[in-house]
Design brief:
This protein is an alpha+beta fold. It is globular.
Length: about 775
């Protein structure tokens, strides 16, 4: 105790107690300080890893889809080529026109990156892409030569990367084993993919210098990698933790690998194993890059914590400095809460506050305010094709361009996503507003140089004025937003003032929504039926049911106007159920009175595949009550439904097909559906979009496109319906192409049930 008294200079018990309180307070402060630092570091590290994980998972999903589409082209070619070999006796595959046409299509689609070869039963190898009939080698000792005879297994077999004896480049040999082949083949088609093409594709998808994207066989053989793919192709990574621990547990996910097989570094890795092909897509970033920002934070906090600890020990005078530092930290946090972290511009909260202040100031001074609502056109495509990092760079440059064009007295903010706003102070002259809006459009239309990429975007701008277009911040922003959407509908890359008619249209949409709530109960919906004609016989044994809304005040309203409102409001499922029941009742009547095999098709919205909508069992029970089989109804879906189907869509489509209902793919050719989906989802019909049919008489290109679709569909065992036939010339061309069915005004417009029944007994062959 004497030592403590000497140390603190404490003489009385009360002073010693006060000293102990100071000591305990200092110790408690240090405990709290370092606990807070530890908590911040743990959360920050987790956030850094989690943010990069989301980026890598998105990247792996995008690359997985790109790879799936790439290999589906090859798979489709192999299936089609081998079916040609099976379908007819071929003396020399080099002279078969169907096979050579298919090879030419493959070369055109792949830009020469995919080769096609003929493999004989003894292993002799021929190049199919040229007229050279001589052998270019024998591959009987290759692993996939043995695999080609294992037809009982079926599916795609991808060999190890090897040097092509023909081109000298590293290639991936691919063979499609067909268990349904009728007999052993004398010739088998094998494809080879230039691995450099895949490396180049993956190189464009990397987002970090140390990032990598790889494609690996399920047995661990590396098929492609960016970067340095040529150095690692063919190596096995099956000994790594990803193959031993992660893949056996889940088909997709992520993991932190402390010592990767390829470069012996610690990496954050996302992977996605494909269901259709024995492939795994891997996207990774080195942990050094992932935690680079966190390490800076670590050293900063350690230094700060040490300094603060010294300040605490030195005494109360240092407490003032600490309080000042905390005040500065709070100010910085408040600043971050009011500013967009990506662009540094004021955020939505700060913009609303500033606009309200400007409205009050303008009201007192009897002045005007101009609000510009700016939205970048087609920005989503930049994110989807070039990646979110590139998209963020574009947003930063766009923010600088907008801020650089307006005056310092004007206010620029980012509301979120690709939306920006500008408050123009004291600009009352319409020409001044127009000049600024046009200038912003011009500066945003200039090319954006983003790393090694060059991107082009435009903008749509809506303008609202105070007090003409609104006296509150909510009204001004809403009206400027409506004007911006009007600019987009007019073609983008333009600006427009708010007009009361825009509000009227928004209100009309709201009225539609209100009226739709009572339309079904009050039986305002009607179904009309358009015949689907058998082009060989001219008879109608099928019809498409189309909905019409007979509004009591507004008359007949087009489905194009109210269907989007139904989908947005979540009412499409209820209306879709009514359509099914009504069409089923009509099918039962026409099977009794017109033809026992009559079939009615209905359109099913993607929203009806969500959870909570009726199941196939419910529909089949209703058909059973009417005495109808499943094939009395057909379901028409769009290509977009198949692109990201999800488990609900896959299960419901399978149940509908198992129940006997036929599935028709509507507007075929207008979306981006992979051909692989046509068989994967048991599609029965494809409907050629009316835009292709209308182009039939415009020239040979239109004829070639429709003919290619029909031939492809028939090769896959599908029937074809041509929509929008309006002339006899179009019908005759489709008949020559062996198209199965036709539909359009040439035969009949959509008809009510009674009129349809009167006309259906005759042949729909116009003079």
């Amino acid at each position: 105790m004497r030592i403590q008294s000497n140390l603190w200079g404490i003489r009385s018990p009360g002073e010693r107690r006060a000293a102990w309180m100071v000591l305990l307070g200092a110790g408690l402060a240090l405990l709290i300080l370092w606990s807070a630092i530890a908590g911040i570091l743990l959360r920050s590290r987790h956030s850094a890893i989690d943010a990069e994980r989301r980026v890598l998972e998105r990247m792996s999903s995008v690359v997985e889809e790109q790879t799936r589409n790439f290999f589906s082209v090859v798979d489709f070619f192999l299936i089609s080529a081998n079916r040609i070999l099976d379908s007819q006796p071929i003396g020399n595959p080099h002279t078969d026109p169907d096979l050579l046409s298919l090879v030419k299509t493959l070369e055109t689609q792949s830009g020469g990156r995919i080769g096609a070869h003929i493999l004989t039963s003894d292993g002799t190898f021929h190049d199919l892409a040229t007229a050279n009939k001589q052998s270019i080698g024998n591959i009987a000792n290759r692993d996939y030569f043995g695999a080609q005879s294992l037809r009982s297994a079926g599916g795609v077999y991808i060999g190890k990367p090897e040097e092509s004896s023909f081109t000298g480049q590293m290639v991936l040999p691919i063979f499609h084993a067909d268990p349904d082949a009728r007999a052993a083949r004398n010739f088998v088609v094998v494809a080879s993919i230039d691995t450099q093409a895949i490396n180049t594709l993956y190189e464009s998808g990397r987002t970090k210098p140390s990032g990598s994207i790889g494609l690996v066989r399920r047995d661990g053989i590396l098929l492609a990698r960016a970067p340095h793919g040529e150095s690692f192709i063919g190596k096995s990574i099956a000994g790594g933790g990803l193959w031993k621990e992660s893949l056996p547990k889940a088909q997709r996910g992520w993991s932190i690998l402390p010592n990767t097989v390829i470069d012996k570094t610690s990496r954050l890795t996302a992977y996605a194993a494909m269901d259709e092909y024995p492939l795994v897509v891997i996207a990774s970033s080195s942990m050094d890059d992932v935690l680079a920002g966190w390490r800076k934070l670590l050293w900063g906090l350690l230094v700060s914590g040490t300094v603060l600890s010294c300040m605490t020990v030195l005494g109360a005078r240092r407490l003032i400095s600490l309080l000042k530092a905390l005040a500065q930290t709070r100010a910085e946090v408040e600043k971050q809460a009011r500013h967009d972290f990506l662009t540094g511009l004021p955020n939505r909260r700060a913009f609303h506050e500033q606009l309200e202040q400007e409205i009050k100031r303008a009201h007192r001074a009897n002045q005007s305010i101009s609000i510009l609502f700016i939205d970048l056109d087609l920005f989503k495509e930049i994110n989807d094709t070039l990646g979110h990092d590139i998209g963020d760079m574009l947003l930063q440059q766009a923010a600088r361009r907008i801020s650089g064009y307006v005056r310092e007295s004007d206010s620029v903010a980012r509301l979120g996503g690709d939306e920006f706003t500008v408050i123009l102070h004291g600009v009352t002259d319409p020409h001044g507003v127009e000049r600024i809006a046009q200038g912003i459009l011009k500066t945003l239309a200039e090319p954006f140089v983003l790393r090694s990429e060059t991107a082009y975007v435009s903008a749509s701008i809506g303008v609202a004025l105070y007090p003409q277009d609104g006296t509150t911040s909510e009204d001004l922003i809403m009206h400027a937003d409506q004007a911006m959407y009007a600019a987009k509908k007019e073609g983008r890359n333009r600006w427009t003032y708010f007009a009361p008619s825009m509000q009227i249209r928004a209100q009309q949409r709201m009225r539609y929504l209100n009226d739709l709530h009572t339309a079904l109960a009050e039986r305002q919906f009607r179904l009309v039926y358009q015949p689907i004609i058998d082009l060989r016989s001219g008879l109608a044994r099928k019809a498409e049911a189309l909905i019409r809304w007979h509004h009591p005040q507004r008359g007949v309203i087009s489905p194009a106007e109210f269907i989007p409102v139904l989908e947005d409001a979540g009412m499409i499922a209820e209306v879709g159920e009514w359509v099914f029941h009504e069409a089923a009742r009509q099918a039962a009547e026409w099977r009794r009175t017109l033809h026992p095999d009559f079939q009615i098709s209905i359109n099913k919205s993607p929203m009806q595949f969500k959870k909570g909508s009726a199941s196939a069992n419910d529909w089949m029970q209703y058909l059973a009550q009417l005495g109808l089989p499943g094939e009395s109804m057909a379901i028409e879906i769009t290509e977009g439904l198949l692109l990201e189907p999800g488990e609900d869509v896959t299960i419901k489509l399978r149940h509908l097909s198992d129940a006997g209902m036929q599935i028709s793919l509507d507007d075929f050719g207008t979306g981006y559906c992979s051909l692989m989906y046509l068989k994967r989802f048991d599609i029965d019909f494809i409907k050629i979009d009316r835009s292709f049919v209308s182009a039939l008489t415009d020239g040979p290109d239109g004829v070639a496109l429709c003919e290619a679709i029909i031939v492809m569909a028939h090769k896959l065992g599908l029937k074809v319906v041509a929509e929008g036939i309006e002339t006899a010339a179009q019908r005759d061309l489709l008949v020559e192409m062996n198209c199965d069915f036709g539909q359009g005004f040439l035969f009949s417009r959509p008809l009510g049930p009674d009129e349809f029944a009167r006309l259906t007994g005759q042949s729909f062959q116009p003079a």
